[in-house]
Amino acid sequence: MKRVLIAIVAASAVTATAGSAFAQTSPLTASAKVQFDMIKANVLKTANKVGPELYSFKPTPEVRSLGEILGHVADANFGICAIAAGEKPTSGGFEKKTAKADIVQGLTDSIAYCDKVIASLDDTKGAAAVPFFGGQMPKLSVIYFNISHNNEHYGNLVTYMRLKGIIPPSSEPTK
User: Fold this and answer.
1) How far apart (Å, rounded) are the C-alpha atoms in residues 156 and 159?
2) Among 58, 59, 80, residue whose Cα is nearest residue 68
3) Does domain 32-53+61-169 have CATH number 1.20.120.450?
4) Which of 33, 64, 85, 175 has the lowest tally of Cβ within 10 angstroms?
5) In the prediction, which pLDDT does 25 show?
6) What is the per-residue pLDDT for 21?
7) In the chain, what are the domain boundaries?
8) How far is CA 64 from its chain centroid?
């Protein structure tokens, strides 16, 4: 919990003191970028840290495997960020992949896509509404939904890693 609070304070400080004209004129978008940067780092580090033999690991038969969760996050990044961009998803199907290399590549590409979408926004553009789950939602709210979705599944991944004696990236000692 202490690390989470430190990360939140650090993210707030980075956003508050970014000093760029963009952060001053688009603080909501700058905050979304900082938050996405934090979670994407943890998810991608997880994908790279865990050995390929654990990609099929399921704590119980009813849940997704570790690889399926990572693939699901990649698919969701493409799908949700495409909605914020007003586009069709450019890629997908990673939840069905089984090879670590394919899943890591899909995750990497999906993160790059979301980074591009976030970079195209500012607070004014981010306030424009897009169709989302049967209603209308501001583009930045869609981005924040994606960030929450990534955090939700990173929590699953943390549990899987802990069950296998692996220290999650967010709990690794700082150097």
Assistant:
1) 5
2) 58
3) yes
4) 175
5) 87
6) 54
7) 32-53+61-169
8) 18
In the three-class reduction of DSSP (H, G, I as helix; E, B as strand; rest coil), residue 131 is classed as strand
pLDDT above 80 (res 23) = no
Q: How far apart are CA 33 and CA 15, in angstroms?
A: 9
CA 24 vs CA 27, 147, 164, 166: distances in Å: 6, 22, 44, 40
User: CB–CB of 107/73 below 8 Å?
Assistant: yes
Helix or strand or coil: residue 39? helix
By residue count, the chain amounts to: 175
Q: What is the DSSP string of 45-91?
A: HHHHHS-GGGTT--SSTTS--HHHHHHHHHHHHHHHHHHHHTS--S-
pLDDT reading at 61 higher than 60 = yes
Measured torsion, CA atoms of residues 117, 118, 123, 124, in degrees rounded to the nearest 10: -10
Whole-model pTM: value is 0.86
By three-state DSSP, how is residue 164 classified? coil
CB atoms within 10 A of CB 131: 11
Q: Which two tokens stand for residue 113?
A: 């896509």
